[in-house]
Amino acid sequence: MDTNTRFNLFENELGSKFGKRFANASLVVHQSSLPAATQELVSLRASQINGCGWCIDLHTKEAAAAGESAVRLNLVAAWRESTVFTEAERAALAFAEESTRLADAHQGVSDETWAQVREHYDDDQTAALVSLVALINAANRLAVPVRQKGGSYEVGMFAAAVN
């Protein structure tokens, strides 16, 4: 554990039990028809907004291992000013931002963004997207307070930690 990390949830019995159940909930989303690339991009963008180094590290490396291009990963933070994302991905990224920044916007997710999501995603994919954004924001709120730093993640490490 990094000397700056306050607490290792995976080494605590209660934290480990919670982590396994959390992983099981996320498995429902990962096995959904929401494209895997979209899942990683959305998780990466919410984690960037929340300043979660651990989750940024995890999702960048998992996406790269799954074949995501460095160009797209590098442009997630500036997706509006890039040409490398599909309209469906742009709708998902807008939804991720607005859902993550609930306290910053009086309306939460705008009607325009919601309409774009519904244009590109069916009911199951929409349920998966809503659930994914909730889960990644929860993951960020687990890692940031204990100062779980990014940089040491290895592909597949999270799955091994919660099994």
Describe this structure as you would to a colleague.
It comes from Streptomyces noboritoensis. There is one protein chain. This protein is mostly helical. The chain has a single domain, classed as Up-down Bundle (AhpD-like), CATH 1.20.1290. 63% of the residues lie in helices and 0% in strands. It contains 8 helices and no strands.
Concise overview:
The protein has 163 residues and is mostly helical.
Secondary structure topology:
Blueprint: H1 13-30, H2 36-50, H3 53-65, H4 70-75, H5 87-100, H6 111-120, H7 123-143, H8 157-162
Q: In terms of per-residue confidence, which ranges show pLDDT below 50 for 5 or more consecutive residues?
A: none
In CATH terms, the superfamily is: AhpD-like
Mean pLDDT: 92
Domain module tally:
1
Strand content: under 5%
CATH topology: AhpD-like
How many helices does DSSP assign?
8
Number of strand segments: 0
Structural class: mainly alpha
Please compute the radius of gyration using only Cα atoms.
Answer: 16 Å
Architecture per CATH nomenclature, i.e. the level-2 architecture: Up-down Bundle
General shape:
globular
Order of helices and strands: HHHHHHHH
| Helix content percent band | 55-70%
Biggest β-sheet, characterized? none
